């Protein structure tokens, strides 16, 4: 796993729960245990929410994108010899992919890959509100981990979407938006989280192949 030493994974949260949530904290812990230097961060609105204990909606997308770019610039300046991989859970993954699409147009572009966990292709039951148009044009290696029955984009739906050939989708067995399977499926959440972590590690290692 020596290849992981050269990489920093900047990882952020979904719309309703920050980096202290069980899903986020477990994922960060497990990825770090595998040797992938995973650094979580909260968007500004989430910091306020955690400080005040009062729920608030996410910031507008331009502010979320700018906040993510600030994180990238900081870690690039602090660790100029490291490769930067960015990603997030749900909304955070969408923001990361939009940041990736924007940075591809900049001369100082320095993001090696993007990882999205539970990509929100559309709001539940609103298939007409598609949010993945930019994924068709990405040139950066991108991994999407998606529950097979995720209400924000099922496997059957995604297989009909136009995605760039640099976008790899791995499906989590019988998983919902948080990768949790149904009891009768024969899979467990623990199994699915392990599959997710291994998929991320294998993907990141492949960047240096």
Features of the shown structure:
209 residues, alpha/beta, Rossmann fold, six-stranded parallel β-sheet, 6 helices
Short description:
It is built from 6 helices and 6 strands. By secondary structure, the chain is an alpha/beta fold.
Could you describe the 3D structure shown?
- It is a single chain.
- By secondary structure, the protein is α/β, with parallel strands linked by helices.
- The chain has helices at 22-33, 44-52, 61-78, 91-103, 155-158, 189-206; strands at residues 7-12, 37-41, 83-89, 111-117, 142-147, 167-172.
- The chain contains six helices and six strands.
- A six-stranded parallel beta sheet has the order 2-1-3-4-5-6, sandwiched between helices.
- The longest helix has 18 residues, at 61-78.
**Strand order within the widest sheet?**
2-1-3-4-5-6
Measure the end-to-end span. 12 Å
N-to-C series of helices and strands: EHEHHEHEEHEH
Text of the CATH class: Alpha Beta
Low-confidence blocks of residues: none
- Looking at the structure, the CATH topology is Rossmann fold
**How many helical stretches?**
6
The CATH homologous superfamily is called Alpha/Beta hydrolase fold, catalytic domain
Structural class: alpha/beta
Indicate the CATH architecture: 3-Layer(aba) Sandwich
Quick check: average pLDDT? 95
Strand content: 15-25%
Proportion of residues in helical segments: 25-40%
Rg estimate, integer Å: 16 Å
Number of domains: 1
